[in-house]
Fold this protein.
Amino acid sequence: MHQQILQFIAGAHAQQPARQDVVAKRLKAPEAEVATAVEQLYACHAINLARITRKGESYVAIWPTGVTPAPHEFTINPKKRPPSGSFTRPPRPERGHTVSKSTLPANPKKAVTDLEAGLKTILNGTTADAPMTPSDISELLERTQSSWNPAMARLLSSGVVAATENPKRKGSRAYYLSPSTSPSEAAGSSADQTRVSVNNSVSGGTSANLSLVADAVSTPPPGPVVGAADPGADTSSDAPDVSFAIHDDGRLTITDCDQVLELQPSATRRLGYFLGCLEIQAWPPRFDPTSIEEVRA
């Protein structure tokens, strides 16, 4: 039956298909038997099938696809499993490099302390006549100057390290271990009590407003009269230590323990202009809005 249907519709195509009822009449076969054979041929992609309704009349249009049907029938044995090596998982795509938890420091503050200890170690044996330049420190630490500047600012403010003029480059600083620091202190941790300091290595090209910042933060205003304690002042011994540093390119670095804030030269000039408009007579300073002119960005 299948071959007879395919032979009869061999010349049909999508624009001019054959009708299923016409095929049943020409083959002189029951229409139900022909319909079953047509469904089987359609299931194995030997023919295309379309159900069309036109002017109230419905019929089935068929035409060959050109696919040869399977020459024999087969059945699947569900009890027989395929060989174990026939199905394998596809390889997982390679992921990008990720930082594991083991590579991260357990305590971020410990990393800062280790950096300070490294600075004291490489500065051991230096003097004011033979200081160490920032380029030498960066080469020994294998770090950029911006990464160890905050740690160096804390050592300067605590008096462990002193600074002098860089003999290799005018306008910049060189560092040496303070004479008051013993070798045992150089290997240990820095003092807990620190004072506010400013990096005064500002070279030419910075505006005059930067000097206002340096004067404001390096020279603390006179404190209150003894006996009249400021109720808003923090008198605890474990208050956070804050240090300031002005770089030769006009950047301002503010370090608060392990937090570092860096202002660009434009923001530093605005801050200097702002501090220049304040009349600091007591500490903390009192803000007078009438003394501030319009600040231009």
